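Researcher: First entry.
Model:
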Amino acid sequence: MAGLCVFLAACGGGGGGGGGSPAPSVATVVSAKGPNFVTVDPSGKFVYVTNEFSANVSAFTIDSVTGDLTAVAGSPFAAGTTPFSVMVHPSGKFAYVANFGSNNVSAFAVDAATGALTEIVGSPFAAGQNPFSIAVDPSGRFAYVANENNASVFEPSNVSAFTIDATTGALSAVAGSPFATGSYPGSVAVDPSGKFVYVANFNDSTISAFTIDTVSGALAAIAGSPFATGPGAARSIAIDPFGRFAYVANESFANSSVSAFTIDATTGALTAVAGSPYTAGIDDPLSVTVDPLGRFVYVVDSLSSKIAAFTIDATTGALTAVARSPFSDVLATFPITITVDPLVKFAYVANSETNSVSGFTIDAVTGALRSVPHSPFPAGPSP
């Protein structure tokens, strides 16, 4: 499986249904969603895609005018066994890959000019069993890894927490780590304030919520956690760039949907938005993302190869389907996850079965998608 996450380089403007919110910073969007199997670096110049079946990471440069992707020299770069989630540090200096099959995290230095990756000293770093998703907090001091522990239903699922060396990028386990979650955590996200961590638990359809100790990086469960989601399995969670709302993709062949929550800015607790969950109009939603300006929500459907899109009411967090959504005229095949570039010009989708990445232009007013002319772009096996 594969997915996408974008980092905000610089954006202006407000949120979805009626503005007023300040523009989010680079760090705001760094860990706003998961699982981030494809990511754009903070400069908006490079895309990194994990290739599940070849144990490596494909790297691309982005054409800022067309959105086309070009392979970076030396790509793909070796990672661990069955790499799933990839995340770039807010500084753009480091990249991290959660290796599901080898129970560890690969860490790389990023060449700022070329986008090439070089594994750092000490990498890979041990995680829990079957690490699936990784997120970095907005300050760049801590990293969090959701461990599915799917070898046995009797094994506890959890989140590993690490401190990040600001000079070398090396990871060190936080005291008390790992921290217990619900069953099969497949997506982890840090809110833009850096105060809260949220984990989508696939097997019991809940969201585990934690506060972050800003000194140590340790996690403590929020009162009321875990929070129930909609019908079906909670596959992915995304947080809007202002930290107001959280959105969850619920996988259910009978009733696929997106759940919406408001986030209590003080406690981090989640409260369902009126009208939630919202019908996605697709069969198998695997991942959800929010654009870097907080206006649109996108959900990908792996079975029908469709992409659903919604506008966000900036006051309530409620969702309204975009015209023509779900999009069936876009070139995506078994898409796993979608992300949006920093300037909200382009969106990218990893296509697991066709070993490619699709690119789309975004209508800045409506949020509608159109395939870019040279899409899709070849990646490795099962990106």
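Researcher: Second entry.
Model:
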Amino acid sequence: MAKQFDTRAAVLDLMMEKVIADTYPSETMMDLIEMLATPEDIPAYAAVLMEKVRAETYPSASMLRRLVALGSS
């Protein structure tokens, strides 16, 4: 039997790649990730956001709020 294509996972991977590559990822991309992410996906997403925050002298308030929300869910 052929393996079924997981559209959710593919879109999530694509959005994660974009967030990693973009210096200032869009709110839309991060919203999509948060809509599509399963509990198993959250640690990888949080790690990406933490790396973005770590790399900036003045990280965006939106990104900081997202990290706080991920930590309290």
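Model: Note on the second entry: DSSP finds four helices and no strands in the chain.
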